[in-house]
Description:
By secondary structure, the protein is α+β, with helices and mostly antiparallel strands. The protein has one domain: Hypothetical Protein Pfu-838710-001. 28% of the residues lie in helices and 40% in strands. The chain is built from 7 helices and 9 strands. The two termini are 33 Å apart.
Amino acid sequence: MQAAEIELKFTVANVDELRSRVGDAGFQLQTERTFESNTLYDSPERTLRGRKQILRLRSYGPVCTLTHKRTATGETAGARYKTRIETESVVEDGDALAEIFSQLGYSPVFHYEKYRTEWAGDCGGHLVLDETPIGVWAELEGPPEWIDAMLENLGVAAEACSTDSYGTLFLSWKAQTGSAAEHMTFDAILAGGEAAQMSFPVKQLHG
């Protein structure tokens, strides 16, 4: 399936407060809090990164999904919303696909983990809550006017919003903390005693 993905992230200071506002904003719970593991693949020369593309295998509960993303035509740096052309498909055997990538010259370059909760909104919109090793983020995906309306309904300030990927957010976090972690996984970050300040127990996230 291929489609344009229009989204905007925002930081979440209080998870309970956001959850309480979600129902009032008309969202319906789609997926309960579920562990998610992601692996990005690229060539040794980082060819895909140079083209502003990603190739990702994601395990979300029992489901494994292959995703390719590329920059949408006409997107400019500093745009208010992040727009990508996304092509993805559920795959039966993630390990087999990883081996195919290896034989084609693509190897794992970045791992990141989170606990994700999903809600469905009107107009085909979508809200996710991501509890990551470096903090809590939410993401709205849908038409721009719908995103703006939901930000207002959820009480989200403009300065809390970002179009950065989790890879970019991780690099910023590393620069701020001096962490030596190479991947945004709970084990890598907790091993260094560098877990971000969160509004939920880190131990609960880890296990």
